[in-house]
Amino acid sequence: MPLHNGPRDDARALSVNPFLGPANPVGDMTEAPPKHRLPASPMAPSTAYQLVHDELMLDGNARLNLATFVTTWMEPQASVLMAECRDKNMIDKDEYPRTAELERRCVAMLADLWNAPDPSAAVGCSTTGSSEACMLAGMAMKRRWSRRQSAPDARPNLVMGVNVQVCWEKFCTFWEVEPRQVPMEGERFHLDPAAAVELCDENTIGVVGILGSTFDGSYEPVADLCAALDGLQERTGLDIPVHVDGASGAMVAPFLDEDLVWDFRLPRVASVNTSGHKYGLVYPGVGWALWRDADALPEELVFRVNYLGGDMPTFALNFSRPGAQVVAQYYTFLRLGREGYRAVQQAARDVATSLSARIGSLGDFRLLTRGDQLPVFAFTTAPEVTAYDVFDVSRRLRESGWLVPAYTFPAHREDLSVLRVVCRNGFSQDLADMFAEDLTRLLPDLRRQKRPLTHDRNAATGFHH
Ligand SMILES: *Cc1c(COP(=O)(O)O)cnc(C)c1O
To answer: What is the pLDDT of residues 303-342, one digit of tens each?
Structure first.
């Protein structure tokens, strides 16, 4: 969310349509409500509804938003359940014990899905999303580090790839941890285990592995990272935990890449997060954070709330939070099961790989990834394309309603700008065909440009995390 300022110059009141009055078009709706001040008096609910509804018509169409990882379609039954739970506050464990129970079952299912050695010993919680989950996991790593070090002025650091999602930069800023980022190198767009180990020292609270990267949809090599850290421990005695940021991939890999070992099967993996509202297939916002066992989550970070006469441990940044998303997560787990999730994620991967192949075959583009890890791929213009750039493509695609972000890569590949397509449940093969046709139709026009036309790259760049 942007941090908003107070009233702006456009302090003109909302415009009103005489029809919006509850009954009488001549007299009922004469007073225009101000935009930036609380109106002095109430208005009819139907009028307020229409004013808000009309303003929102200009938002983009969420289903055509190929920039977001977040769920834009759920079944009507899920919407009904969510509506039924709109009034439940997740923190009121004592008042809504069944909602609390569904949360507990979701944690247990995830512990099992992510192969916790003893699922009953794993601890976990729901959050508002992966950002909060990553904050909690980072706090646990920081606290474990501060317990084991004694130098009073030691400054903690966290090692990660430069491709981390912005939440890790937030964590480091908010909790005063030095971020140590492994840059991109050549055609390597994510973390390299050896380079990560190079950055570790006695004040490293942990290393983050990402499954998978928001920049290009690739999985980071978590098992190799753990092996490299095992080597470091043998050489130096430093025992550095790994947190896996599985915001997207922790709900993809267990179904589509069962042989990929990235989770609690690796003893060094202390914690894992995912976004229930990404490939967990629930509307925003729900996320999950799990620790392999109680040792990985220092007890002093856990607070207790009343629960059926006893108390229930909680770990969260917020106090109040909607319960509906957690209920919707449980519904989706129950509804799909492993086979259902596999089918849904495979469909997304099939769309991603076939669409990337089709874009690759146009000749104007070079694929960085193919959508065969996360159902997400990034591509750039081919070296011989000089008439237009990825920012032009992004801008022109908007004309047909498609929201596709274009952005420049971080250190050391600032020379590289890409487009990225996120294929989600609901972006069907049919929609993908229409997208490919729209892109193909633009090309003759783009090729005729004298040079790339986008001057303000920042304005052109959609939010891509
Ligand atoms: C989306 C994402 C996040 C942030 O998750 P939210 O649920 O949007 O807060 C963190 N890490 C990665 C890798 C992501 O893809």
So the answer is: 998 888 888 899 999 999 999 999 999 999 999 999 999 9
Q: Above pLDDT 90, what percent of the chain?
A: 81
Among 23-27, 60-64, 76-80, 118-122, the range with the most confident prediction by mean pLDDT is 76-80
Written as six digits, the tokens of 8 are 């702006």
Output the ligand 1 site: residues, CB below 6 A: 69, 129-131, 134, 165, 167, 210, 214, 245, 247-248, 275, 287
- Residue of the nearest CA to atom 14 in ligand 1? 247
The per-residue pLDDT for range 56-97, each reduced to its tens digit, is 998 888 888 999 999 999 999 999 999 999 999 999 999 999
Place of tokens 């009233």: 7
Closest ligand 1 atom to Cα of 70: 8
pLDDT in tens, 344-383: 999 999 999 999 999 999 999 999 999 999 999 999 999 9
pLDDT at residue 28 tops 70? no
Q: What is the pLDDT of residue 434?
A: 97
Q: Which of 170, 273, 278, 288 to mutate to test the pocket of ligand 1 (most atoms within 8 A of CB)?
A: 278
Contacts of 67 (CB under 8 A, 6+ apart): 403, 404, 405, 420, 422, 462, 463, 464
Model pTM? 0.94
Residue 47: other Cβ atoms inside 10 A: 19
